[in-house]
Structure formats: structure tokens, C-alpha cells
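Course assignment 3, question 2. Fill in each field.
Student: A.L.
Task: Predict the tertiary structure for the chain below.
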Amino acid sequence: MLSARLRPTRDRGRDSVTPDRILILAAMLVLASCSSGNGDDNESAEQSAAAPSVEQVASAGCDVATPVTTVEEEVTFDSAGTERWYIRHVPPAHDGLTPLPLVVDFHGYLEGAVIHTGHSELGTYGDEQGFVTVTPQGAGAVPRWDTALDSADVEFVGNLLDDVESTLCIDRNRIYVTGLSNGAFMSSALACAYSERIAAAAPVAGIRDIDGCDPQRAVPVIAFHGTDDRFVTYDGSFGEAVRDLPAPDGSGRTLGEGTLDTSAQGPSVPEITGAWAARNDCEAEPSEEAVADDVTLLRYRCPEGSEVLLYRVDGGGHSWPGSAFSQNIANVVGATTTSISANELMWEFFEERPLPADG
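Answer field:
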């Protein structure tokens, strides 16, 4: 049985952007190799007339959980002999008995869980929509995610899901993952590793085709990426903005000083998304639909329940669409669109895609 300690989360200072915070947010990116906007356009995410009729599957916590009196808390628990922690945000109206959907939201490189909760604001959005949000903390002095499918971080997330399911009343048919940058890399990896548990994924500024990805089922994916991202470029390379970030080994060097090949070219974001579509048995070429002056939806024609979407933000930076936090640090991350809201679009996508009844 996993033991957990709870404590209220520390003050986030969400209404201000300090120099230290800007420095941290400059780095919310990228290290797979180191192993609210206007809602008027959001209807373009619609893929089906109604959400599939899939019954709730109550987690073990539904038998023991009680109403949560603190909305947001840090939870520390033992994962394979290592103390790890995450921030959990439970809607204040939750009675502790009704199974709720769960969204696991992964921070970017160096950003950390505390900063990221104020960046994506999925916890607050979950209060409105009725889902639990969990924001895990990456390991190391430079918080980050090792996205190799056999990594300790991937194992940690499996243990985290066990912990959440045993302590809260969660609908096990409605567990979803998202994340920013290196956190988007992680959400891509988890869709591969835990396809039997994760119903759908929403990588923001960092969808990846993970080496060895062979999911047990086709996982629906909705991705977001800006064409002017200077960290994880739309063309598939690490951008120049990555070079000055600290290396994860504590050496004092930067990523540009030999710890990461920033000249290497990888597959482009559309090619990566196309790889997910091929794995999900979708047609090879997507349709394109302008959903705003600066946003185009690339939609693959897929079997029902395995849809793949990419929202291309023309001129968009390394940012979370619709995030006021991202807008406040445009000098670091680039432009943030307000034409769409990543939170609204991904939740609409998630709501319609629980685990299949035969999954």
C-alpha cells in the first residue's frame, strides 16, 4: 500500500511574474533526449455528435475516500523506494463518492509542478468542468522527465496513478494526460506505455513519436504547436533558445555546451503527428481547416475513438494557447494565441473519448 503525506501547497504568487519565475519559464521545455481564450472557435474540435456511452469504473478510493476539505495539496509518496510528490487539485464540490475524471498535467523542463499549475490553470478549469487535476514533479535538481519507456519516470507515473486511484474516487475509464514541452514529450510517452489506462493525450508544444512506442490500443491525440516556437521548433529541431538552459547533470554547463546537439534535425511536428495517425490506422493526409486567423486545424480521418488532431498556431511561440501566464512572458516564450483555449479544446476532446467499452 502506498503511503502518502498531504500538505497545503505553497504560495504560488500567481498574479505576478518575477525575474526568477521568468528564468524558470524560459526553460519549460524539451529534453526527451536526456533520458482563456475565445471559445467561439472551439467547436472545430468536434468529432462526434455525442460522447460515447461508456460506464464509469470506480477506483478503489471510492470505497474509502471522504470529501476533500483542501482543494489543492502536495502529496508525497514512495515510488519504488524513492520519495516523489505531486500536486492534486480536487473540485471543491466533490462529494468523495462520485467517480471523477482525472487529468495528469506534466510540467516542462526546469519549470516544476508549482509553476506549471499557475501556467496551465487546469486545476481551476477542472473546478468548473468537474475533473481532478494532478501535476507531478519531475526528478533532479533540474526538474525534468525521462521519456524512455523503461525509465524510472514512466514507472513513477504508473505508481502515481495507483496512488491517486486508491486515495480519491476516480473514474478509471476517464484518465487523461497533457503537458507542456518536455511534459508534452512525457504525455506522448505515457500514451505509449499506459494505453490500457490512459484514454487520450494532449501534448502542448512538444508532441513526440517515442522510440519503441507500441500501445495496446490506439490512443486519441490532440496536439498544439506554434510555427515560431524557438525551443521545440515546428520543423523538428531544438531551437537556439535551448542553448542557454542549464544542463541536467549539475555541471554548471548549458545545454549548448555539448550536452545536447541543437543542430540535429528531427521529424517535423506534422510528421510526428502523422506517425501517431499511422499508428492509429488513420488516413495518411489530414484535412486543413482555418478555425481562426492564426490557427489551423489539421484533422486526420481515423477510426472512431482513435482520432488525431493538430492545432497549428501560425506565429505562435513555445506557449500554452489561451494562457494569460504565457502572454505575460511573451519576451521569453514568444507569442501566445488567444484565438483558442488549449484547456477548452483538450477537455472537449477528452470528454468525448473515455476508454472504449472493450478496453
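Instructor remarks: The two ends are 26 Å apart (CA to CA). Residues 18-351 form a domain with the Rossmann fold fold (CATH 3.40.50.1820).
Grade: pending
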